[in-house]
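A reminder from the course coordinator: this example appears on the midterm review sheet, so study it carefully.

Given structure:
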């Protein structure tokens, strides 16, 4: 049972064209608390046909929404932001119940997600065109930006609030409408956001939420329907490649925020205390279930043992348990499959010669999908944890002996989302930052996400950027106007 003050935030029906709707066939699916295994809700399980209907209603709403002024859209987004922050505690309780992260983290995610609504409420009024130098006295040349149209957004379970607001806010600010399919593991956060958007006065059809376990069929509709002009997705690289292929059939605009394999490079001159704190946050945030998590901690051989000692002590001090309990810093993994996947990676590393330091003994009272924080030392680059995204609380620590070797190890992956370096040498900072093949580099810092920065990766970690002053561009089309006969 989820205990919240505003009971109307706990919705289980899908949200289409301003109405709360069941599946046409009455089908539902259950949502479980990963910390306890208990069922907390049953949500409407919509089909591809119902997704098509939502797209059509969203397209109808777009005809009017696109003509509203930027100031009007900004005012509605601002009201939505205020309502989210007014209901921060209830939203955090819902998030922790369905996702499992510690309540302190959930409160932070609500504020982080709301920051995108606030940012794009402000950016809505700052979408500018240009007057271009003319090529002839009888012509005037200029560009304008227009909303791309209906947007489909497919969002993950690890940040069920922030990954929605990071997409919906710029879409609405630009004048687009949106159809959102949240992960089946975490639909309640998406529905609560939709309810607050409704309360804020955002018109019917502008925001729609399709709850469904029919990911393949609904995803195909969201990526191939010709009324959809933009697809935005956060999730795994393999799924992203499928969606890209589908979207290509109608040449849609796409944004892809895909998998990561983030390195933390700890150089010989680094402040090891600072580096250990940064690696701790980057590795164990959300129980290791983030795309920017420290997937590989790569430490200079001369400070390797000292770093391991400092880092291990910090990991041992973490408190694991049900996220609603006081002081808990690490919750469960999302489900039992995730536990098995992480354990398989850990066992493979040990088979390749790594040593496992299991820092916690799981309490017998913990009934959900918990996995103990684990450190792997002397790990071979041949182990799967070097090349595969772990998505769990296992921290493999590798060695390097020179700057060139460290950079080569960091870049030895098809991914290129986030990376982190720790050093006091500013020459090294510039050199390494420029040579790292990643969209984002944290320098003596691993808490790098914010509404003001362009979040995104290179290589197989995705396309496009979310947030920042650049974030509105992915939801607009530039139109060139040539005025002749002057």
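Designed residues:
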């Amino acid at each position: 049972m989820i205990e919240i003050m505003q009971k109307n935030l706990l919705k289980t029906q899908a949200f289409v064209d301003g109405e709360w709707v069941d599946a046409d066939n009455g089908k539902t699916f259950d949502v479980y608390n990963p910390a306890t295994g208990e069922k907390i809700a049953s949500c409407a399980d919509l089909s591809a046909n119902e997704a098509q209907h939502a797209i059509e209603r969203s397209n109808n709403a777009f005809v009017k929404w696109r003509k509203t002024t930027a100031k009007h859209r900004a005012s509605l987004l601002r009201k939505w932001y205020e309502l989210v922050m007014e209901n921060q505690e209830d939203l955090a309780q819902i998030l922790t119940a369905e996702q499992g992260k510690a309540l302190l983290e959930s409160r932070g995610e609500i504020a982080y997600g709301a920051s995108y609504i606030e940012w794009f409420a402000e950016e809505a009024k700052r979408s500018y065109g240009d007057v271009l130098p003319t090529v002839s006295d009888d012509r005037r040349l200029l560009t304008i930006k227009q909303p791309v149209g209906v947007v489909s957004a497919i969002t993950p379970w690890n940040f069920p609030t922030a990954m929605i607001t990071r997409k919906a806010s710029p879409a609405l600010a630009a004048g687009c409408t949106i159809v959102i399919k949240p992960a089946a593991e975490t639909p309640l956060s998406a529905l609560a956001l939709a309810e607050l958007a409704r309360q804020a006065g955002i018109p019917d059809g502008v925001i729609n939420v399709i709850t469904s376990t029919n990911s393949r069929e609904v995803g195909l509709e969201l990526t191939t329907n010709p009324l959809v002009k933009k697809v935005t997705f956060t999730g795994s690289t393999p799924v992203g490649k499928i969606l890209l292929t589908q979207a290509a059939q109608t040449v849609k605009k796409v944004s892809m925020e895909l998998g990561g394999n983030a390195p933390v490079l700890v150089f010989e001159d680094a402040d090891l205390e600072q580096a250990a704190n940064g690696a701790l946050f980057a590795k164990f945030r959300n129980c290791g279930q983030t795309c920017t998590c420290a997937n590989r901690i790569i430490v200079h051989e001369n400070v390797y043992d000292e770093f391991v000692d400092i880092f291990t002590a910090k990991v041992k001090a973490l408190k694991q348990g049900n996220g609603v309990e006081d002081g808990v810093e690490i919750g469960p993994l999302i489900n039992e499959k995730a536990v098995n996947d992480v354990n398989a990676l850990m066992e493979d590393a040990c088979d390749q010669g790594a040593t496992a330091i299991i820092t916690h003994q799981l309490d017998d009272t913990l009934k959900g999908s918990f996995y103990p924080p684990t450190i792997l030392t002397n790990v071979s680059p041949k182990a799967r944890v070097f090349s595969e995204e772990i998505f769990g609380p296992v921290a493999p620590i590798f060695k390097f002996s020179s700057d060139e070797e460290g950079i080569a190890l960091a870049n030895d992956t098809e991914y290129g989302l986030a990376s982190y370096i720790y050093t006091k040498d500013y020459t090294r900072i510039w050199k390494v930052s420029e040579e790292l093949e990643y969209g984002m580099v944290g320098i003596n810092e691993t808490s790098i996400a914010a509404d003001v920065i362009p979040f995104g990766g290179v290589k197989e970690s995705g396309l496009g950027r979310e947030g920042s002053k650049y974030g509105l561009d992915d939801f607009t089309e530039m139109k060139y106007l040539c005025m002749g006969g002057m």
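The radius of gyration is 23 Å. The chain has two domains: 7-259+461-481, 262-414+418-450.
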